[in-house]
Amino acid sequence: MEFKEMKKIWDTQNDEALYVINEDALHRRIKAKKMGTKRKTSFSEVILIVSNLCAGGVVIISHLLKNSGNVAALSMGAMMMIVGAYILFMRSQRIKRDQQTDVSILGDLENAIENINYRIKLSQSMIWFCLIVIAFTMYTVLNSDKSLLNIILISGFFIIGFFMSRWEHKRFNLGKKKQLLDLKEKLINEFEM
Amino acid sequence: MTENEINHIFQTWLKQHKALLFKIVRSYAFNEEDRDDLFQEIAIQVWRSVTSFKQQSAVTTWLYRVALNTAIKWTTKERKHQDRHESIDVSQHIIESHQPPDDRLAWLYEEIAQLNEVDRSLTLLLLDGFSYKEMSKILGISESNVGVKINRIKKHLTTKSEKS
């Protein structure tokens, strides 16, 4: 078969009436995808809110009860409480935005994209916040009468935690960027003949 | 560009160029579930691309660029299906083809499927009548490289058709 003939066969598909998009099914699939993203976002928010409010509360209460007068520790506790409350506020804004979404295919699409962007921002902010908390904690620990073993254990815990959160961010949020770079490399290799 | 304008353009593109999108979907996904999944990914990327379209190229060229990029990326994913934790109703498929079965077309799709992702893109563009210049712009490679590749693909397909 000549290539011209193949093209003729190929062109028979151009009749638009031969294809139908089932809009209802497309809408359902996008909605299912959106719900998956929503669940993940909601889970991350709840973990961050609870951990910040609880940890901040424990730090403040324990230092106030001991009457330690440790300004660094109290500031860190207060900062964690503020961050927890701020994420709670952002969560309520997001839920409000979700409820106002247009119930069309495009409305759902836009909402799913907004949620993914929101999660990336949240994850990036938390990595920087984590560094501040580590700095405050280490300052407090180093100025206390804790043993060297305790200091090493606390440092190790923070280092592992920090790298785990970076790994999570890279693995799930920056994975798409890696895919693009891989694709570019693949294209370059393919055409280096 | 207002949201209504974006929505209108997206709906128009989808309506006018669905055959183009389906050809790409059929060349990169080989069962109904995967086809639905890929079509959904392409629809999302096309919608997102509306604001970036600067009318410096034809809509078909733009759509090919977006859809092929999405399809190639999609095939490189380890897992082809949707997140298995999400309950997706697959009883109703997104794309429905009312196409009468054509053995020669089925053969052509089988041959295209055996090519690597990049050669597949070039073959689709070639069959849809794109020039070497347009192909080089869409794929970001030189025209001479396109020419060499195209000659190889044409020769390969013609030889295969003679054998079958």
From TrEMBL, chain B:
Annotated transmembrane regions: none
Keywords: Sigma factor, Transcription, Transcription regulation
GO molecular function, one term: sigma factor activity
Family: Belongs to the sigma-70 factor family. ECF subfamily.
GO BP terms, alphabetized: DNA-templated transcription initiation
PANTHER family reported in the protein's UniProt record: RNA POLYMERASE ECF-TYPE SIGMA FACTO (PTHR43133), RNA POLYMERASE ECF-TYPE SIGMA FACTOR (PTHR43133:SF45)
Domain RNA polymerase sigma-70 region: 15-79
Source species: Roseivirga echinicomitans
Listed InterPro entries: RNA_pol_sigma-70-like, RNA_pol_sigma-70_dom, RNA_pol_sigma70_r2, RNA_pol_sigma70_r4_t2, RNA_pol_sigma_r2, RNA_pol_sigma_r3/r4-like, WH-like_DNA-bd_sf
Residue span(s) of domain RNA polymerase sigma factor 70 region 4 type: 107-157
Name of the protein described by the UniProt record: RNA polymerase subunit sigma-70
